Amino acid sequence: MTDSVPPARATGPDQFTGATPDNAIRDADRAKAGRVLAADGTPLKRSLNRALRAQKLRALMLIAPLLIFILITFIAPIADMLFRSVENDIVSQTLPRTVVELDRWDGEGTPDEETYRALAADLMVATELKNHTRLGSRLNYETTGISSLFRKTGRDIDEAGEIYMDQFVALDAAWEEPATWVSLMADPDWIAAQADWSARAKEAEAAQDAAATAEEARALEFTEPEPRFRLSGTARDALPRTSRIYQQFASVIRSEDGDSPTQEQPWAIVYQALYEDLSGGFTGESYDGAQARLLSRAADAVAAFDTLPVKEFFIENVDEDWGDPEVWGTIKAFSSPYTAGYFLSAIDYQLTPQGIEPQPDDQKIYALLFKRTMFMSLTIMFSCVLLGYPIAFLLSNLPLRTSNLLLILVLLPFWTSLLVRTSAWKVLLQQEGVINAILVWAGAISDVGRLQLINNQTGTIIAMTHILLPFMILPLYSVMKTIPPQYVRAAKSLGATNWTAFWRVYFPQSVPGIGAGCILVFILSIGYYITPEIVGGTTGTFISNRIAYHISQSLNWGLAAALGTILLALVLVLYYLYDRIVGIDNVSLG
Predict the structure, then answer these.
(1) Torsion over CA: 40, 45, 50, 52 (sign)
(2) Among residues 338, 354, 385, which one ends one of the domains?
(3) CATH number of the domain bearing residue 565
(4) Are 405 and 486 in contact (CB under 8 A)?
(5) Domain match, 475 and 387 both
(6) Are residues 571 and 484 in the same domain?
(7) Cα–Cα distance measured from residue 532 to residue 525, given in angstroms and rounded to the nearest whole number
(8) Do 540 and 573 belong to one domain?
(9) Which of 176, 217, 265, 569 has the maximum number of C-beta atoms within 10 A of its C-beta?
(10) Is residue 5 situated within a structural domain?
(11) What's the number of domains the chain is made of?
């Protein structure tokens, strides 16, 4: 008879978990003396690492659609909201010259003549691009009346420089011809390329006219774009102001109207820039281009021209508000591509040329709205706990058939539109509504002492408690259903009263459901705006109502984004405090 030898017991991690890829890798590392190979002849460690990488890649591919969905629908909108709350590049992009000149302004009085010249050039371009109204709307959020000022200026800005244009044309009719300006300002290579392009375009047009059918005409259509305008280096050096604004003129009429500088007379403001260049130390030796003689005669004549300072044109001819330092202070304060102005407005402060200042008392509303939102959301949450806990307790302790029937009644409001339920509360709560009528009939109140339950915080709390109550009942019910009834019976058998058994045994086990319900109700209530808008009136609205107003009506998306960001930060802070006090691990849905 032979003795049987028991198999050796596994030691190390395999003793508890069994063989795993990680343990196999450790074993391969220990096998220094001999080389362990996989079935295909490769080192075991390398083969296992490759298998683990493939496994992780497969897992990543499985969750990739969900990750992409979250990025597109959740992370990207939040990132866009955060960016919009500080983005402010419209001022610097629309008024680039003006922003540079305003850096020299000390905020006292009105800026100098050079700043007004820069404003005229910027607004001429902005008006052609239809950007001046957007700029006015943006600055109107900070100073009321700027929007109408920019619209009015957009209608009159083409008159800036007309006094100089008329005198140049009276001096020589050639100044009215587009060809004169092209030969004066354009690069000779561009002129040759443009002439060649124009000749080919005319040939194609003639061929189209001679085509026998519409299909042949479409096939012969000339689609090559006109060469991009290039400025002459000679003109750039001799006439710096004129060349800058003329180049913008050529670019704008091509991009916006599809026109060519060879066919369009320049803006009146280009003539003003020419006057400024010629009267600012221009000499005939500085320009030797095709129009040297014409330019030299004009340089000799500009000393006798009638003048109109641009500052005077804006204040007296356009609108006297251009002489208001507050308008210029607003432009300067918000000239940076990024601003804290939206966040300051969201906490009842404002950004001014003198720094950060509080809003006037009659405009301080956002701090009040944030406090009201937090107070009412917490009140609604506690109301749902008080009303929902007994209902959930009853449902969890009734027979299954009865509890299922009652649970259908709890879910029944979900089958009705939110708008319908809110409107129904408006009917019930008004002074001539059902609730007041029943109280008067029962003698609880007099007919002249009807309760004011609508268009205030009371109406909002009542309506939202009813709407959000199922979100409290369902987590509580799902947790309470898992609590074994034997625990309470055991506590009673040991001498505990009904209250002691409930408070010391049953209630602590239901806390995870309370936590889950509180988080659901609070997060939902803090973002509600339909119900407060209908039944809240002026004292029962939330900060979300103001956010919706700025998004859909005032179109101040930057302020709406700042308010939303602050609201998000408050929610995260409260979530952190809840986790520190209660513990997020104690939250359960059953």
Answers:
(1) positive
(2) 338
(3) 1.10.3720.10
(4) no
(5) yes
(6) yes
(7) 10
(8) yes
(9) 265
(10) no
(11) 3
| In-domain check, residue 440 | yes
Please list the pLDDT of the chain residue by residue as tens digits (590 residues): 444 444 445 455 555 455 555 565 566 555 544 566 666 667 777 878 888 888 888 888 988 888 899 889 888 888 888 898 888 889 999 999 999 999 888 888 889 999 999 999 999 999 998 989 999 999 998 888 999 999 999 999 989 989 999 999 999 999 999 999 999 988 889 989 988 988 888 888 887 777 767 777 777 776 788 889 999 888 888 888 999 999 999 999 888 878 888 888 999 999 999 999 888 877 767 777 778 888 888 988 988 999 999 999 999 999 999 999 989 999 998 988 888 889 999 998 888 777 788 888 888 899 999 999 999 999 999 999 999 999 999 999 888 888 888 888 888 888 888 889 988 998 898 888 888 889 898 888 888 888 888 889 999 999 999 999 999 999 999 999 989 989 989 998 988 899 999 999 999 999 888 988 998 899 999 988 889 999 988 888 899 999 999 988 888 899 999 999 999 898 888 888 887 776 666 665 55
Structural domain for 135, as ranges: 92-159+310-338
Under 8 Å CB-to-CB from 585, ≥6 apart: which residues?
Answer: none
Residue 9 lies in a domain: no
263, part of any domain: yes
Q: Rounded CA gap, 224 and 135, in Å?
A: 35
Rounded (10°) angle between helices 178-185 and 292-301: 100
CA distance readout (Å), 388 to 462, 466, 475: 14, 10, 10
Same domain, 371 and 262: no
Angle, vertex CA 184, rays to CA 278 and CA 279, nearest 5: 0
Tokens representing residue 12 in the block: 């190390």
If asked whether residues 389 and 421 sit together in one domain, one would say yes
- Please report where in the chains the tokens 């006798």 appear, as a residue: 304
